[in-house]
Design a protein that fits this description.
By secondary structure, the protein is mainly alpha-helical. Helix content is 64%, strand content 9%.
Length: 91
């Protein structure tokens, strides 16, 4: 019983640590977006290139137009949600 309890406690600690690491990874893009303008204005050419690579990572060039490439789950948001007609018959 003690071994099972210790094993479960260890699994819970690993899950909590994993959740915290995931939360930290989610914060990084947000923090970057908040400071990006200032970084751009003071950056050298190499840093500006890296910022553009990050920002335009999911873009493709179609002729002379830069088009964002949406990936799941965001492709659904970009396409919009289509709602089929109601059952008919009115209100």
């Amino acid at each position: 019983m003690r071994d099972q309890f210790a094993s479960i406690k260890l699994q819970l600690e690993v899950m909590a640590r994993s959740r915290n690491e995931t939360a930290e990874l989610a914060e990084e893009p947000f923090e970057l977006s908040q400071t990006l303008r200032g970084q751009w204005l003071t950056a050298d050419y190499a840093a500006k290139r890296r910022i553009l690579e990050i920002v335009l990572l999911n873009c493709r060039l179609e002729g002379a137009t830069l088009v964002p490439t949406m990936r799941k789950p965001f492709d659904v948001l970009a396409e919009g949600h289509s709602v089929p007609s109601s059952r008919g018959g009115g209100i």
